Amino acid sequence: xxxxxxxxxxxxxxxxxxxxxxxxxxxxxxxxxxxxxxxxxxxxxxxxxxxxxxxxxxxxxxxxxxxxxxxxxxxxxxxxxxxxxxxxxxxxxxxxxxxxxxxxxxxxxxxxxxxxxxxxxxxxxxxxxxxxxxxxxxxxxxxxxxxxxxxxxxxxxxxxxxxxxxxxxxxxxxxxxx
Length: 178
What we know:
By secondary structure, this protein is mainly alpha-helical. The chain folds into two domains: 1-35; 37-151 and 163-177, Cytochrome Bc1 Complex, Chain D, domain 2, CATH 1.10.760.10. 52% of the residues lie in helices and 0% in strands. The chain contains eight helices and no strands. It has helices at 2-24, 40-43, 53-71, 92-95, 101-110, 124-136, 143-148, 165-177. Helix 3 (53-71) packs across helix 6 and helix 5 crosses helix 6. The longest helix has 23 residues, at 2-24.
């Protein structure tokens, strides 16, 4: 038991040190330059588009049309066009879930350096859809996917080991009722 606790603590300290070093070197997925921050008011802006499967799908389509040549098909910042840029494009997978929606939306809309300002190409709702797609990259089983995933072709339903947001809330309310 003590070895398990020591291993967990050591792993956490190593991870924290790695993150700390990466941030201090300006290596937070933004190339060799300083960390790129949007204005505080922009970062605090609430996403008006619900992050559901339809929005994520629309965002994915826009991402592949406008963003993947630089950020890559897997959003790791390794697209063919991006390889020629300095600074290199951001690894969006590492940024997903770390930056608020408003931060992503402002950066997409306004651009910086070699990244174009997309506000003249994309409608505002398209930008928010791209944000929802990027944020969905955080985890493969993010709740938006689990909430609306079609299980009909998987041989099971949500009652078999899949907990949706709604079913979890229902179970919790039933537990408190007894």
